[in-house]
Specification:
Layout lengths: L6 E6 L9 H17 L4 E4 L13 H10 L5 E8 L5 H14 L4 E6 L6 H7 L9 H11 L21 E5 L3 H9 L3 E3 L8 H11 L11 E9 L3 H20 L18 H10 L3 E4 L1 H15 L3 E5 L5 H16 L11
Parallel strand pairs: 1-2, 1-9, 2-3, 3-4, 4-5, 5-6, 6-7, 7-8, 7-9
Length: 341
């Protein structure tokens, strides 16, 4: 399976760069979404994270509305909403409202991780749990989108009767099995937790049961993408993400750091191995190099769709990376010094 049949989408954590603000990060994300729509990306997903100095997407549903209002065709959704943090009715109402405002353009991707540290997770929840209630919460959430039946006393308005695609997201086999049993599309977080990618996909496809939502398995694979005119330039851009994961390994998250020409001296051998392992599903290089890497990932995983996250410090460089990747993927790239501004 190659780029001719595999969709390409955007995963955005709305990064706040060092020296920048959340307001600037949100404006940059809208600008990126508008460009991504022009460049043919299939969907634009926002990820829920909390208590992270470098991420401005904590109020995920609000950001989705902002992005959807500033675009016209591209699908916009969550990658994902961390359902254990929320009452299912609240999410049904929020996404029912989004679907009512932007009909046929909203995706609801759901995960069972906290999307933050234990203290922030506890502060968010009505009662603390570690995600064991996720299957029950999911069934409750889905029930709010069904047409009203006699005897129901609690309704999601807006929400009831709306056909909002629900995706399950995961980094292990738990959500893969659940998505298979319920006949839902599945997305794997291999952009930061790739260890169980192939086993989870095998379980999902092997155990899949057709549903009214989906006749056969549909799998999305998340990757990191850093594209520039040369391999060397792209590797420099990639260093911002490596610094982010280095800080996560150390337990000191911060804002997105500017790139460096070399990571030597910034990390120990053990830290390098840990961070590199987490981001090994990355396409870094010139358009030809990045496309070749994505082709290999698509072929190995038989993904129906790839969703690309690009933690790039400079907004102009981030836009150019996504543009070059889209052109390479669609076969329209021509080597040129022409800039997009």
């Amino acid at each position: 399976m190659g780029s001719g049949t595999v969709g390409l989408s955007v995963l955005d954590l709305v990064p706040i760069v060092a020296g920048g603000t959340a307001s600037e990060a949100l404006a940059n994300s809208l600008d990126l979404a508008q460009h991504a729509e022009k460049w043919g990306y299939r969907r634009y997903w926002i990820a829920e994270h909390h208590n992270m100095p470098g991420i401005a997407s904590s109020a995920t549903s609000v950001v989705i509305g902002y992005i959807a209002a500033g675009t016209s065709r591209i699908r916009v959704g969550s990658g994902g909403i961390m359902l254990p943090n929320h009452a299912p009715l609240v999410i049904a109402e929020q996404f029912g409202t989004l679907e009512s405002l932007f009909p046929g353009r909203i995706d609801l991707g759901l995960g069972r991780a906290p999307g933050g540290d234990p203290l922030s997770a506890k502060a968010l929840r009505r009662s603390f749990s570690s995600g064991e209630e996720f299957p029950q919460d999911l069934l409750e959430l889905r029930s709010y989108f069904e047409e009203r039946e006699g005897g129901r006393t609690v309704r999601a308005v807006p929400g009831e009767g709306l056909q909002i695609p629900i995706w399950l997201l995961g980094s292990s086999d738990f959500s893969a099995r659940l998505a298979a049993r319920l006949g839902l599309p599945f997305a794997f977080a291999s952009h930061f937790a790739p260890d169980y990618l192939h086993s989870a996909l095998a379980i999902y496809r092997g155990e899949f049961q057709p549903s009214s939502s989906l006749e056969r398995p549909y799998a999305m694979v998340a990757v990191n993408g850093f594209v520039a005119d040369t391999d060397e330039e792209a590797e420099v851009l990639f260093s911002s993400l490596l610094q982010t994961f280095l800080n996560l390994v150390r337990g000191t998250p911060g804002k997105l750091a500017p790139p460096v020409t070399s990571m030597d001296g910034l990390w120990s051998l053990q830290e390098r191995e840990a961070a590199s392992r987490m981001v090994r599903y990355s396409a870094v290089g010139s358009p030809a190099t990045a496309k070749a890497r994505l082709d290999r990932i698509a072929g190995e995983t038989q993904a129906d769709e790839l969703i690309v996250s690009s933690h790039i410090y400079d907004h102009r460089a981030r836009l150019r990376s996504y543009r070059l990747l889209a052109e390479a993927w669609n076969g329209t790239h021509r080597a040129s010094s022409e800039k997009i501004f």
